[in-house]
Amino acid sequence: MVMRMHFMIQYRRLFIVWCMCIGLLMHNLSLVGATKTDKQTQPSQRTAQAQSGKAGKPSEGKDKAPKLPPQATPTEIEIGKQASKAFEAREKLLQDKKLLQKLTTMVQRIAGVTERPKFKYTVKVINRSIPNAFTFPGGYIYLTKGLVDLVESDDELAAVLAHEVAHNVHMHALRAMKKEQRWTPLLIAAILAASVSGDRIVREIPLMIAHLINTVMLGYSRKFEREADKSGFEYLRRAGYNPVGMLTVFEKLERIQLQRAGGETPWQTYNATHPALSDRAHWVKTALRKYGIPLNRRAVTAGGKAVAEEVTVNGTKAGAVKVRNYTFCILASL
Predict the structure, then answer these.
(1) Mean pLDDT throughout 59-72?
(2) Which of 71, 215, 224, 254 could form a disulfide linkage to 118, CB 3.0–4.6 angstroms apart?
(3) Which of 329 and 235 is assigned the larger pLDDT?
(4) In the prediction, which pLDDT does 67 show?
């Protein structure tokens, strides 16, 4: 009798939480399905929307850009929390405090110029050598060590972060989930019910979280990726980064893609989760010309730059001039 009463209480609790969550779900998805109104859009944003290739432009097709609250919604945060927890359980993360602090500072600088300036982000680095980047709802951004090693400047690193920030700003994960109606109500309700009640009988959660992780890592629609590129470009400009960094990152990734063509799994190639890199690079070149930004690759890469470093030769300190990590000359003190 005691056990029966226990299960009745548990099911009653789940039913109450289910009803609450369905209400929360409908509220959040109403944000996803709605379009921006002129009254809620700042003049600068309306100007940006009116011009091709700028942030905030609704994607073509039936899916419309949502009204954007300034901070992450409870639904985004909880889904992202559960997804990141499941993902990190199977991945090894780098514990480089200096790097992580730098990434956090950069991403918050970018976040401050977006349509959702109060959105808080968490950036982590996965110990994988293949360049890749992705994000879960609620501001959980992941870069691989391979991608961090690939970039040569803060401008290039900011380009990667700005793209992932744009996915969060535009609620791409929720919008993608909304299209899969068989998952959405059960997914969000079950996740929130489990987090509130601590009940373990919701067995669907692991499967649904795995589905979300798979959706994020294998990529959104090309429409969403184009929207993230366009918004990311605008965020770079607003935050004071050089958008040429976006071009050089695409070019580097395209070279890697060509070198590894035919032998990699979808997880292992950045291009598998995004539109054709050549098309993206072409779009960036067009945007740079439109804004009158000089296409100077040397400004955002280490290529061709001479760097002075202090070195020790036979116990004596000296100055070295390096180009692309090659020591061009060593100047001994007189």
Answers:
(1) 69
(2) 71
(3) 235
(4) 79
Confidence of residue 10 (pLDDT cuts 50, 70, 90): very low
Reference 130, options 149, 142, 144, 111; nearest CA is 144
State the sign of the Cα–Cα–Cα–Cα dihedral 144, 177, 25, 11.
negative
Helix (H/G/I), strand (E/B), else coil: 310: strand
In the numeric block, which tokens belong to residue 327?
């020591």
Q: Are 253 and 163 in contact (CB under 8 A)?
A: no
pLDDT of residue 199: 45
Helix, strand, or coil here: 175? helix
Sequence-separated (6 or more) residues with CB below 8 Å from residue 143: 103, 123, 124, 125, 126, 132, 133, 160
Residue (of 44, 42, 40, 43) closest to 31 by Cα position: 40
CA distance 230 to 49: 11
Q: How many CA atoms lie within 13 A of 88 on its CB side?
A: 17
Residue 98's CB: how many other CB atoms inside 10 A?
Answer: 7
φ/ψ (deg, to 5) at 19: -60, -45
- Span 94-116, mean pLDDT? 97
Q: Which of 310, 304, 309 is nearest to 323 (CA)?
A: 304
Contact status, residue 219 vs residue 225, Cβ threshold 8 Å: yes
CA 220 to chain centre: 12
The CB density around residue 122, as the number of other CB atoms within 10 Å, is: 18
- More confident of the two residues 15 and 178: 178
